[in-house]
Amino acid sequence: MDVASTIENQAEVENLVIGAGPAGLTTAYCLAKAGAGVLVLEQDARYVGGISRTVNYKGFLFDIGGHRFFSKSSEVVQLWDEILPDDFIDRPRLSRIYYGGKFYAYPLRAFEALRNLGIFESTICMASFGWAKLFPVRSPKTFHQWVRNQFGERLFSIFFKTYTEKVWGMSCDEISADWAAQRIKGLDLLGAVFDALKRSLGVRQGGGQDGKAVAKTLIESFRYPRKGPGMMWDACAAKVKGFGGVVEMDRRITGLTWDSDSRRWTVSAVNGAGEAFSYTARNVISSAPMRELVQSISPSPAALPAAMDLRYRDFLTVVLIGRSNTRMPDNWVYIHDASVKVGRVQNFRSWSPEMIPDDVSTCLGLEYFCFEGDGLWTSSDADLIAQARKEIEVVGLMRSDDVTDACVVRQPKAYPVYDDAYRTNVAAIRDQLGEIYPTLHLVGRNGMHKYNNQDHAMMTGMLTAYNILAGKPVYDVWEVNEDAEYGEAGVSGAKEALSSVRLVPQLVA
């Protein structure tokens, strides 16, 4: 960048938030509502919401990955209703698994699964499950070991291995068991079989929106903004501004410098036109990828090598639009078949009819998981669309000839990778940053390198805002989504769960 051609802009704020995703905007909302000064810097020039944004292509709206609005935290649900009081709709959840040329309802239906797998294969699966329970892997370290203990080797190979390795681009033996324990918590085979029998017999589930009697993996319905999740975050950004906060788009962070004497940060940013901006702030709240954040701090922290060792999985969505005679009532379909590269297919009309501008078009999102810079990521849009058209016909969800339009959306750093070194690296970064920079707060999925759901990311933002307003660490934000009661019960649950946490000796109302 030609420094001489830039325009230097300077501003001083009390609280500066990096990133306008769910965690960053929730933090900003809670701070601004309480009367605290707040500035949000978002790299995207058009959309707020991060990976929870809604993209508009010629009037067709689509979600980046599919975001159900379901939470056991009453505080999160209340915040959703407060920000977007009149625009939620209740949607039935319907998803399937495609494996071996056949579709399986997910959650499973016992008799359908038995018919598709056959008596012989089903018997092997149950025998494999029994063997795993009799002879479990002690202290499982990998995703493979953890799932094998829960479901048996045979079901692992059928319903977990292929899809998981598509998502992460690595062997299930390289993925930490932490990811499985976090994402599949509360579901075991016996519970799933009992649930599947009830579904096959037409017995309705207990629980649902309150989530009290059923694992999240098995919920039958969810709430959804009628025009996609971006509707929530557009409204949130507007309310932040209404409370006196500022949200600036097209601001890419280029550096952070800490002054220990004044206990203030200097934050540098640049926009797409090359204009440079400088801000000073007492508190910096970052939802930016942890690796990028640490790289931007000057002088370089000793934890920089640990940050550089963190890995991310990127993904792209190929959106196919047309008029199809193939019935697809699903919200999404998981593709567990190795014959195609697509990992999941979203049906945006089933998320909300208002995502489609007419009554006849079909709009499907084919999700491909990749690493930034690899063959998929660098493929031309034309090649990706051609591949998606071919694969959607192989799976049987739409004929290639029915596709009349298409587009491609790339999403870098969609998922923090849980490899065997991530926990050590995150601990080193967390310890050093916490010790040296008392007013640097990490929130959200990428900010904390934790595969949080949207509601958990919001909870980290809420608790961080409360810590800043209290002027001390009332809540240990890192416990969100680690302890089941804390992660699901919300602020009230946090108070109880944190009453004995070493880092939080005293709570405030």
Question: What characteristics describe this protein?
Answer:
7-stranded mixed sheet, disordered C terminus, FAD/NAD(P)-binding domain, disordered N terminus, 509 residues, 3 domains, alpha/beta, single chain, Polyamine Oxidase, Chain A, domain 2
Compile the SSE list and pairings:
Layout: E1 8-18, H1 22-33, E2 38-41, E3 54-57, E4 60-63, H2 74-83, E5 88-92, E6 95-99, E7 102-106, H3 110-134, H4 143-151, H5 153-159, H6 161-168, H7 177-183, H8 189-200, E8 221-225, H9 230-242, E9 246-248, E10 252-259, E11 264-270, E12 276-286, H10 290-296, E13 297-298, H11 304-308, E14 312-322, E15 332-335, E16 344-347, H12 348-351, E17 362-370, H13 375-378, H14 381-395, E18 403-416, H15 422-436, E19 440-442, H16 444-448, H17 454-470, H18 484-497
Parallel strand pairs: 1-2, 1-12, 2-9, 6-15, 10-13, 12-19
Antiparallel strand pairs: 3-4, 5-8, 6-7, 10-11, 11-12, 14-17, 14-18, 15-16, 16-17
Task: Write a short abstract of this structure.
By secondary structure, this protein is of the alpha/beta class. It has 18 helices and 19 strands.
Q: How many helices does DSSP assign?
A: 18
How is the biggest beta sheet arranged?
8 strands, mixed
CATH homologous superfamily name of the largest domain?
FAD/NAD(P)-binding domain
Number of strands: 19
The CATH C-level name of the largest domain is: Alpha Beta
Q: What is the CA-based Rg, rounded?
A: 23 Å
CATH 2nd-level architecture of the largest domain: 3-Layer(bba) Sandwich
The coarse overall form would be globular
Q: Class by helix and strand content?
A: alpha/beta
Name the beta content range: 15-25%
Number of domains: 3
Mean pLDDT: 86
